[in-house]
Amino acid sequence: MKYPTIRFVFDRKHQATKTRTGLVQMEVTSERKRKWISTGVRLYSDQWDDRRMVINSPDMLSLNKDLTDQRQRVQDWVRELERRKEEFEFDKLDRFLSTRLVADSFLEYVEARIEERTDIRESTKKAQRKLVGSLREFRLITYFTDLTKKNILAYDAWLHTRGYVQTTVHSYHKFMKIYINDAIRAEIIDSNPYDGIKIDRGRSKTRKYLTEAEIRAISEAEVPTEGVGRVRDLFLFQCYTGFAYAELAKFDFTKAVERDGRYVVHNTRQKTDEPFYVVLLSPAVEILKKYGFHLPMITNQQYNLQLKVVASCAKLSKPLTSHMGRHSFAVFALNRGVKIENLAKMMGHTDIKTTQIYAHVLNREVEREFKRLEESLLK
Asked: What is the pTM of this model?
């Protein structure tokens, strides 16, 4: 019987440069057929040597051990086939990889679980894939045996050195805990390395918003082209509805319900799947009438780029972004006396604490006004 040969192949697709990484794969060859197995190790073009494997990397010792261990697992399995005088087949290899390598590899386990889950939205999957990307870059947490308290704390420190804000750091830890608990339930591991570790949630960045005077300046500004005018109208529509870009993009006026001469929009937020409830204010309806009740959407990237032109036309010093329209609506509503619990329903927030951030913004505004009063008394 013939048995396969196994070797490492770097950058089979010729993608690696000195600034872009390529993948190291195990190549299994048997009777002119080949299969390539991802090792999860990615390197720059000057970090691989066919004889010495990983070179010019501060982690080359641990990476070479990792690669050697992965190859050894497959070789041991092939030797077991030889011992039992079983014929090698690629289907058998696939079954071995799905039950052995994935079970050993925490990263591959997480990747597989993310893709097979049906209880989370694609946007959530996209966020969780970033966790896998960061762990691949970190390199010290690949296998379940790497899930130690020491490595968790090292990962936390590494995230901070890479410039991640605390809220993002907390999110990555939160995602990792989900799949560690998932593995515990599946009896792959029996203890949680996070036991005794507390990760600070951090505070979200201060919400940036526009005052009513600044919204009016945008509304009254002279714009150079129809295209910029359309972008201006989209932003104003956000200011009067509280829509994020995702809700703006999927807005369908035909699904609005007319009640007592007003149009009611009841839908779910794209980001959280949380229901929201909005009655279209008259300025929003006027914008819809202008475009035949069909918003002239463009890509989010182009939208944010052209908002810079809108800000310049309105002579605003603040850089405009699409999400500022949503924040501006929240502050506008609170200024006009809307109760915070009702605003939460308008905004589609899953937790009223998120809505309360806008109340904190108003408190700071009030404090600044008191400061102005104090200064006027001293004159």
From this structure: 0.50
